[in-house]
Amino acid sequence: MAHAPILDNFILKLLQGNLDNLDIIDIASGNGLWGFYIRTRANGLPNIIGLDIWPPYIKRIYRLNIYNSMICADVRRMPFKENSFDIVLACEVLEHIPKSEGKNVLYELERLARRMIIVTTPLGFIYQGEIDGNIYERHISAWTAEEFEERGYSVSIIDARPLPRTLKFIDNIRRFILRLNSPTLKEIIATKKYED
Question: What is the Cα–Cα distance from 131 to 138, expressed in whole angstroms?
């Protein structure tokens, strides 16, 4: 799905350590950026599975050999048995799913993980329509940090559109004068780790 570049360093920091022979699934792998980052910037040679619902994405990244295998499937009906993956990565996925189904998806992520789950999503609702004709890119639900904390996740919230202090001050004055809503997009990074 869509990629928020501000997340890159935060997620890669969570993936520190030797990933050799670990099984990782990149849920809603989109254009394969997380798989690429894991291959090129992480330590070790993990087995990475990419999963996406949009066939054009699957076709595009299959040729790049980033992932050990690609699966075209809906995140709401994943074809894996319990504890299939050491690391379950679901970046920018939940906001594309109705809230009631998203809660079931979280259960599925927890069912699949042996060691760690990493989930990112915007804090609150951020409008996004189709991208390149992909109806699955639409944002249709909003999430809060408390919803993850209630499920036992550790949560960090980051400013996804940081401005230098001077520009932030000027922007705040402009927004106050024009009575505009705050432009700040915040991202939730939720992690759950399991004991080995």
Answer: 8
Q: Residue 100: which residues within 8 A CB-CB, separation 6 or more?
A: none
Query: Is residue 50 one of the residues assigned to a domain?
Result: yes
Structural domain range at position 151: 7-193
Query: Amino acid identity, residue 75?
Result: V
Interatomic CA distance for residues 92 and 119, integer angstroms: 7
In this prediction the pTM is: 0.86
CATH of the domain at 96: 3.40.50.150
**pLDDT band (50, 70, 90) for residue 173:** confident
User: Is 2 among the domain residues?
Assistant: no
86 dihedral zone (left: phi>0; alpha: psi -120 to 50; beta) = alpha
Residue 4: per-residue pLDDT: 64
Average pLDDT (49-64) is: 92
The count of structural domains within the chain is 1
